[in-house]
Amino acid sequence: MIEATSVTGQPGRELVSFRAGDQEYCVDIIAVREIRGWTPCTTLPQSPNYVCGVINLRGAVLPIIDFNARLGRGATQPSARHVIIVTHIGHRLVGLLVDAVSDILTVADGSIQTTPDVACDTVKSFVRGILAVGERMISLVSLDRIVPDLELEAA
Questions:
Q1: Residue 109: what are its φ and ψ, rounded to 5°?
Q2: Using CA atoms, how far apart are residues 76 and 58, in angstroms rounded to an integer?
Q3: Global confidence as pTM
Q4: In angstroms, rounded to a whole number, what is the distance separating the alpha carbons of residues 139 and 152?
Q5: C-alpha angle 112-102-13 in degrees, rounded to nearest 5
Q6: Is the pLDDT of residue 153 over 50?
Q7: How far apart are the C-alpha atoms of 117 and 109, rounded to whole Å?
Q8: Of residues 37 and 150, more confidently modeled
């Protein structure tokens, strides 16, 4: 069972932290619909390299994005230990393939530090900030950057 961990004594927002490769990330819990075990996907032709495919989620077609591949960190070879975080991104439901969900964190907005200037533009577009939780450094992910706006791509 994952328990909420308070990073500060102040009330704040709740974040779901997860591991992808050797890094830890988090997203706002409001955007998370559910967390489920890995389910093999049906691949789609001509899809970007970070799209694993689609699954049937209670009658709805859910695209699955390999989080590591989307960040340019290489493709994940999914196994039974991997999980899918079903998220709301804009008006769409999208599944993120990650290694494991770690924690639910409650953080004050003031504890989120800005992304350092040494990070490349690609990293800055995905990462909204950094949380220092004990010895852990957790990147706060901007979900709206994970799936490009299809209308902008077509233009």
A1: -55, -35
A2: 25
A3: 0.84
A4: 26
A5: 35
A6: no
A7: 20
A8: 37
How many other C-beta atoms are found inside a 10 Å radius of the C-beta of residue 13? 14
- Alpha-carbon span 85 to 62, nearest angstrom: 11
Structure tokens at 62: 């859910």
Q: Tens digits of per-residue pLDDT, 15-69?
A: 999 999 889 999 999 999 999 999 999 999 998 989 999 999 999 999 999 999 9
Amino acid at 70: R
DSSP 35-84: EEE--PPBP-TT--TTEEEEEEETTEEEEEEEHHHHTTS------TT-EE
Triad 131, 120, 14: Cα angle to 5°: 25
Instruction: Give me 91's structure tokens.
Output: 């008006």
